[in-house]
TrEMBL record:
Protein name in UniProt: Flagellar P-ring protein
A Pfam short name: FlgI
Protein source organism: Acidithiobacillus marinus
GO BP terms, alphabetized: bacterial-type flagellum-dependent cell motility
Function: Assembles around the rod to form the L-ring and probably protects the motor/basal body from shearing forces during rotation.
Length: 375
């Protein structure tokens, strides 16, 4: 009997360890999803250009003079000198001034292509069918890193006739896939010898310590050190090829990150409420009611006798109505999840605005065990 009991106990322990390992694996993430390599980042580029070939939907020269000035400057660079009388009266309707933006990814080399976004800056009604002329894209240092040109792809559509119009999406912005050629690369410092910094996307002392421990277990003691909640220093090889292989091994290691903080995010403008995990409540009672005041006014006409000498008088009459429905009292036990609270509030007809007010009041009363963030 004891032998069978011991066998059953051993089997239960094996199953329990298997379940725990499965849970740990399910919660673990690779290091590359948790950190970014210090110095390896994208850079924003911006430029000013012209879009031509529009079907009468470009800028109006009288209201947007810089479009015509830019067109004349381009003509001069191309060797076209217009007479003063023609240049003064030039009013093209198929040209629009635009701002071109792009992201230069890390390690981008000259000759590679990147996507660009084109947005109108004048009063053009649509960029559909247009072609962007050669536009230098500059970085924050004023240097040109890419040159954009090509046909626009506009997802929006609009039509108008006799004062009526209809529009779907935005017609004054478009994209050019692979529309810019990279002309200059940006040094990232990755090839330089010395330690590398792993920067956590979500700073956490626990996660940083776990990342350093996992790297030391796999690569050797003293290779990684957690400097703070957001940085882990890694002693990497000096040669570029060895650094690439070293980082490739590190970024594929599995780490169980710290459980996120209990947080409730509220967007007061749209009435959106996002609930994080592990959000609970203390014991509390919620009573919420609406007070509505309606003021209406109508005019009464006093008409005198047709044979009398009186005058017609218009007398306004106001009516004020106050309505306050009975507030519903809800009781919540300690430890109940916020998801259950939201379902209960929705069941009694609470609007998103009511829900935001109730959550803020719960936080002020100390009953909401979570961070309340309003964006």
């Amino acid at each position: 009997m004891n032998k069978h009991f011991r066998s059953l106990l051993a089997l239960c322990m094996i199953l329990g360890l298997t379940i725990l390992v499965g849970l740990e694996t399910a919660q673990a993430e690779t290091i590359r999803n948790l950190v970014a390599v210090g110095g390896v980042r994208s850079n924003q580029l911006v430029g000013y250009g012209l879009v031509v070939g529009l079907n009468g939907t470009g800028d109006q020269a009288t209201q947007v003079p810089y479009t015509t000035q830019s067109l004349l400057n381009m003509f001069q660079r191309l060797g076209i000198n217009l007479p003063a009388s023609v240049a003064t009266n030039l009013q093209p309707k198929d040209v629009a001034a635009v701002i071109v933006t792009a992201h230069l990814p890390p390690f981008a080399q000259p000759g590679q292509t990147i996507n660009v976004t084109v947005s109108a800056v004048g009063n053009a009604s649509s960029l559909a069918g247009g072609t962007l002329l050669m536009t230098p894209l500059k970085g924050a240092d004023g240097q040109t890193y890419a040159v954009a040109q090509g046909s626009l792809i506009v997802s929006g559509f609009g039509a108008s006739s006799n004062g009526s119009s209809a529009q779907v999406n935005i017609t004054t912005a478009g994209t050019i896939p692979n529309g810019a050629n990279v002309e200059r690369s940006v040094s990232s410092g990755f090839d330089q010898a010395g330690p590398m910094m792993l920067e956590l996307h979500q700073p956490s002392f626990t996660t940083a310590a776990r990342i350093a421990n996992v790297i030391n277990q796999q690569m050797g003691y003293g290779v990684a050190e957690a400097l703070n909640a957001g940085e882990v220093r890694v002693n990497a090889p000096g040669t570029p090829g060895a650094r690439v292989n070293f980082l490739s091994q590190i970024e594929n290691l599995n780490v169980s990150p710290e459980t996120p903080l209990a947080k409730v995010v509220i967007d007061a403008r749209s009435g959106t409420v996002v609930l994080g995990q592990n959000v609970t409540l203390g014991a509390c009672a919620v009573a919420h009611g609406n007070l509505s005041v309606t003021i209406s006014q109508k005019y009464l006409v006093s008409q005198p006798n047709p044979l009398g000498a009186g005058q017609t008088v218009v007398a306004p009459q106001a009516n004020v109505k106050v309505t306050q429905p009975q507030a519903k009292l809800l009781m919540f036990e300690p430890g109940v999840s916020l998801e259950a609270v939201v379902r209960a509030l929705n069941a009694v007809g609470a609007t998103p605005t009511d829900l935001i007010a109730i959550l803020q009041a719960m936080k002020a009363a100390g009953a909401l065990h979570a961070q309340l963030e309003v964006i």
